[in-house]
Amino acid sequence: MTQPVVTANETPRCEGRLGGEPCGTEREVDPQRVREIAEKHRLGRGPVIAILEEIQADYGHLPERALRLVSEETGRSLADIYGIATFYRAFSLEPKGRHVVCACLGTACHVRGAPAVVEELERQLEVTAGGTTASREFTLETVNCLGACALGPVVVVDGRYYPRVPKSKVADLIDTVRIGVDASGAAQLQRLFPVGVSCPHCHESLSDEAFAFDGSPSIRLRASYAGQSGSLWLSALYGCHRSSSERDIPARAVVQLGCPHCQAELTDSWICPECEAPMASMAVDGGGTVRICRRNGCTSHMLDVT
Ligand code: FES
């Protein structure tokens, strides 16, 4: 599952093409076309988030030098870039380990044994919560809720959700991360899991098999902002934040989310615990509700299957 990030348009595209020519084809640069592209990105803030995400993926954090370069390249003030980098919890100005382990100590996870899980993580990794191992292999963090309370204790490693982690499985989890999640084949440790959702008004499925993320059908919604509407596709894998939208929507903008079938707004009385924007809710197949923050770029989402 994901949040209504409508920042960078993630429609599959080839980095080496402008205007539809295949990669590797030498094509005369059209200055007007290039100016149009630059102007489009200059007006929106979403592309800055995409740039920062990639820098963080490369360096493990956002070095000051990189922020200055982003400011020069985008023409945005350093204060503006810094504001975006510090607004979203997904970004870090401090170097982190190669793997980031984030354990939830919120109430629901706490009563299901999260403190013992954190203690075991500290023991296995030989680092206290909030720290990074001397080898810079792991950073261990704790948070007060990861939005999947019914599945606690929850641990997120490098963005992958591991629900119902018992203390006895912590060593396996760390081994899995060290070996490489995809190479380990550790089936007993669940990670990203798909969530099927439908409109709470017309009960039509919101699954879109024609647009997949990571092999799973996406969730298609109608996103509206500033009088314009378009499709928004979200990853159906809970904990995955991939998304794609038909329209450019500025970072931090709060969008309206609706059902593409009956057009009803997916409103909710909940307020995002991270950024205080209103949330939208969808019905989970089999029972329950999933809520997502309507602010572009906020990764907050909650799954309640109780
Ligand atoms: S309390 Fe742990 S996910 Fe909400």
What does this structure look like?
- The two termini are 17 Å apart.
- The chain is globular and about 55 Å long.
- By secondary structure, it is an alpha+beta fold.
- Strand 8 (216-225) and strand 9 form a beta hairpin.
- Helix 2 packs antiparallel against helix 3 and helix 3 crosses helix 4.
- The protein is 25% helix and 25% strand.
- It has helices at 31-43, 46-59, 64-74, 78-87, 107-110, 114-125, 170-179, 181-184; strands at 99-104, 138-143, 155-157, 160-162, 193-194, 197-198, 207-213, 216-225, 228-234, 237-238, 243-245, 256-258, 267-271, 278-284, 289-293, 301-304.
- FE2/S2 (inorganic) cluster (FES) binds next to helix 5.
- FE2/S2 (inorganic) cluster binds next to helix 5.
The total tally of domains equals 3
**Assembly state (oligomeric):** single chain
Main sheet: strands, sense, barrel:
5 strands, antiparallel
Summarize the amount of helix as a percent range.
25-40%
Q: What structural class results from the helix and strand content?
A: alpha+beta
Note the overall shape.
Answer: globular
Instruction: Write down the overall mean pLDDT.
Output: 77
Bound molecules: FE2/S2 (inorganic) cluster
Our measurement of the CA-to-CA distance between the termini, rounded to an integer number of angstroms, reads 17 Å
List the helices and strands and how they pair.
Elements: H1 31-43, H2 46-59, H3 64-74, H4 78-87, E1 99-104, H5 107-110, H6 114-125, E2 138-143, E3 155-157, E4 160-162, H7 170-179, H8 181-184, E5 193-194, E6 197-198, E7 207-213, E8 216-225, E9 228-234, E10 237-238, E11 243-245, E12 256-258, E13 267-271, E14 278-284, E15 289-293, E16 301-304
Parallel strand pairs: 1-2
Antiparallel strand pairs: 1-3, 3-4, 5-10, 6-14, 7-8, 8-9, 8-12, 9-11, 13-14, 14-15, 15-16
Bound molecules: FE2/S2 (inorganic) cluster (FES).
